[in-house]
Write a structure and sequence with these properties.
about 475 residues; alpha+beta; Helix Hairpins; Heat Shock Protein 90; 3 domains; five-stranded mixed beta sheet; four-stranded antiparallel beta sheet; 13 helices; about 55% helix; about 15% strand; elongated; ATP-binding; ATP binding
């Protein structure tokens, strides 16, 4: 599955979304750490205040306040302010609890800043339901005991011994619950930023990518038809519109050069074929049959070479659009042409495959491949088959093949086979070049490879859709 989009619009939007997500994640971490630091500072400040207050005076004041309350403390009091400090003759740490030196060091720094240097200081985190002081309060105060969730609250318990061997002053500070609204706010903020930023970017980028997509489509179409009669109107930002205008000008120049080439080739063809036709008539007066036959063969070779050159030059300048054709029938018709001439050509495999093609050109490409196989190997086997999404027109022979180092060169114009492939036969070395050009005109390719059992395999591979 492709996770990274292929289009410029998709890649830009995804990159911005990832960058925004990373930025918001960093912001969330920093904000969360800041909130935690403030929460911890508030707890330690409250513990410091409780430990600095004169314990006897604080106890008397809290007892008078408790006497005025009908029901004593409740969960609201536990949530809103620290529990009154206690005096204890023993270390406040319970069995299984350990002192937290980092927190104790932080609390000692706060006490030292107020001029207090305790002999011993212990700090621990404790569940409220496990604290003996709150357990006794719950036993004495049924209303407090019925408050939901009081036992699951978390306490910071700090014990300070001002002098070695003296009484422990114990402070219990409820640790406030984490603010869940902070994370929710960040998520909501992220969603809003995504909607606004990506929405604006989408509108802006579409103004850029839509003309680019149209230009790409136009380029593909021009490469296929070389028709510049309907230029693409410039659109989008100034740079893009200039690019489209430059492309239209390039199309016009290319079309003009191709038209000049066609006119020139037409004139060359006419100027050459006319004297060739005259020569063909004149050689009839030659009395020597052998000489007359050689002269006629030479004229035919020149004519065929001229036809191949003109055909190669006109590939891709088809005036008509591709038409749906049954390729099995096309292959069978070409094979029958060679059978009618007594050539050993067989159709070994065929399927009913319909594709839009230029029938005349594709028939000529297949005919060239079969003619090469017959010329150099004496026989040919033709097959039409599918290979995944590709459609293959295959021609196999039992000839000597082509050296691997020469296969690419054999697809170039005017390349002939080496002596082992019967150099004495006719041809100008344009058959494979024409077949390759026709395959590429249809969006496919011509593939040559030597067979394991000997011989050459030539395949016209066309896209299946």
């Amino acid at each position: 599955m492709r996770l990274w989009p292929r289009s410029l619009l998709g890649q830009t939007l995804l990159a911005v979304a990832i960058a925004l997500l990373v930025a918001q994640a960093v912001s969330a971490v920093l904000l969360f750490r800041g909130t935690e630091n403030r929460r911890e500072a508030a707890v330690f400040n409250a513990a410091t205040i409780n430990l600095l207050v004169d314990p006897e005076r604080r106890i008397r004041r809290m007892e008078r306040a408790m006497a005025r309350m009908a029901d004593g403390g409740d969960l609201a009091r536990l949530r809103e302010r620290p529990i009154r400090p206690r005096m204890s003759d023993t270390n406040p740490l319970l069995d299984g609890e350990a002192n937290m030196p980092v927190r104790a060091g932080k609390l000692r720094e706060l006490l030292s800043a107020q001029g207090v240097d305790p002999a011993n200081l212990v700090v621990t985190i404790r569940r409220a339901g496990d604290d003996p002081v709150l357990q006794r309060r719950a036993e004495r105060n049924p209303r407090f005991a019925r408050e939901p969730g009081w036992a699951d609250r978390t306490l910071l318990v700090a014990g300070m011994q001002r002098a070695e061997g003296g009484t422990w002053q114990v402070a219990r500070v409820p640790i406030p619950a984490r603010e869940t609204r902070v994370i929710g706010g960040i998520i909501a903020q992220t969603l809003v930023l995504f909607a606004i930023l990506l929405g604006v970017l989408y509108v802006a980028l579409r103004r850029i990518t839509r003309p680019l997509a149209a230009l790409t489509k136009r380029t593909v179409q021009f490469a296929r038809t070389q028709d510049a009669s309907d230029p693409l109107p410039p659109a989008g930002p100034h740079d893009i519109s200039q690019l489209i205008a430059a492309h239209n000008a390039m199309e016009s120049r290319i079309t003009a050069m191709l038209d000049e080439k066609d006119v020139m080739l037409g004139a060359i063809g006419h100027d050459l074929k006319t004297p060739l036709a005259a020569l063909r008539v004149r050689i009839e007066s030659v009395e020597d049959d052998g000489q007359r036959a050689k002269m006629a063969a030479s004229i035919e070779d020149i004519t065929r070479s001229l036809d191949d050159i003109l055909a190669l030059a006109r590939i891709g300048r088809a005036q008509a659009d591709a038409e749906a054709a049954q390729l099995g029938a096309l292959a069978e018709a070409v094979v029958e042409e060679f059978e009618d001439m007594g050539q050993p050509v067989t159709l070994t495999q065929s399927e009913r495959i319909v594709l839009p093609v230029h029938v005349t050109w594709l028939r000529r490409a297949l005919r060239n491949l079969i003619a090469n196989a017959v010329r150099y190997a004496g026989a040919a086997e033709v097959a039409l088959l599918r290979d995944g999404s590709a459609v293959i027109l295959r021609v196999d022979d039992q000839g000597p093949g082509i050296p691997a180092a020469r296969i690419d060169a054999m697809l170039e114009p005017f390349q002939r086979g080496e002596a082992s492939r019967n150099r004495a036969t006719g041809g100008a070395g344009l058959g494979l070049t024409l077949a390759r050009a026709i395959a590429e005109q249809h969006g496919g390719e011509l593939v040559l490879q030597n067979r394991d059992g000997g011989g050459l395999r030539a395949e016209i591979r066309l896209p299946g859709s």
